[in-house]
Design a protein that fits this description.
The chain is an alpha+beta fold and 249 residues long. It has helices at 4-25, 95-101, 244-248; strands at 52-53, 67-68, 121-122, 126-128, 137-143, 148-157, 160-170, 173-177, 180-186, 192-199, 204-212.
Length: 249
């Protein structure tokens, strides 16, 4: 007769083996956490947009970081007075006329149009959809004599021009990521600050303001360690001179 003390250890081992086999073969009927069940097709992967420079020629570096003038809890922007959007849209308007009607940047309206970096003036205007309604907004950048860049954006609303963004910095690199606008600028400590603007229904507001810090090279301790102490030298004792009596033997 087989005793229970001999049967129980063998039964426990068999139960564990069956449980492990079921887990490995997926016999429980569920996929692994976060995985796919048997016969389930993999979901399609959405293609994420990549940043595209709005003004590729103006993508230099500067030790200053950008500063944004837009803040939350402001009243809705008001349309500019004295200008109307023609039938052809914002792209048919004179950039100088738009700046002249905007009291925030009116002082830059007399700048000349420029087509390459390194000079003060108004860059070629850019049309980009920033609100997601399928209609392009007007992007304007003004490079000043002091080296700073002023960036403004305008949208059309019932035939009127509405300002939706004002930002400035030292030679800011402007990129568009989907319908978002990203302003990148190196900082004085070697890092980079990136301010991301997103349409909130009234204006381009700050969606994120991140800073990446420069990687510090690992400190080398080789130069700080003291030079190794010279190891003590032992002088070899001279061999005894054999006596004449020893040599005779």
């Amino acid at each position: 007769m087989i005793s229970r003390s001999r049967l129980l250890p063998g039964a426990s081992v068999a139960a564990v083996a069956v449980a492990l086999a079921a887990a490995l073969l997926g016999l429980a009927g569920c996929g692994a956490p976060g995985g796919l069940a048997r016969g389930e097709t993999a979901p399609s992967v959405a293609v994420q947009p990549s940043p595209e420079a709005v003004w590729p020629s103006w993508s230099g570096r500067s030790p200053k970081s950008p500063a944004a003038d837009t803040t939350e809890h402001q009243p809705p922007p008001r349309p500019l007075e004295g200008v109307r959007v023609p039938a052809g849209g914002l792209g048919q308007m004179s950039v100088q006329d738009v700046l002249e009607a905007d009291p925030r940047v009116k002082q830059y309206a007399d700048r000349e149009l420029i087509h390459r970096p390194g000079r003060a003036g108004i860059r070629p205007p850019s049309l980009s959809d920033l609100t997601g309604d399928g209609r392009p907004e007007l992007l304007v950048a003004i490079d000043t004599e002091s080296g700073s860049t002023v960036i403004t954006a305008y949208r059309e609303l019932r035939g009127e021009v509405v300002p939706i963004l004002l930002a400035r910095g030292k030679r800011v690199t402007v990129e568009q990521l989907g319908t978002d606008l990203v302003l990148r600028q190196p900082c004085a400590d070697g890092g980079e600050q990136a301010i991301r603007y997103r349409w909130n229904g009234e204006r381009m507001s700050t969606a994120s303001d991140t800073k990446t810090y420069a990687k510090t090279p690992p400190r080398s301790y080789a130069k700080t360690l003291p030079p190794p102490s010279p190891s003590p030298t032992t002088s070899a004792s001279p061999s005894p001179t054999p006596h004449s009596s020893d040599t005779a033997r």
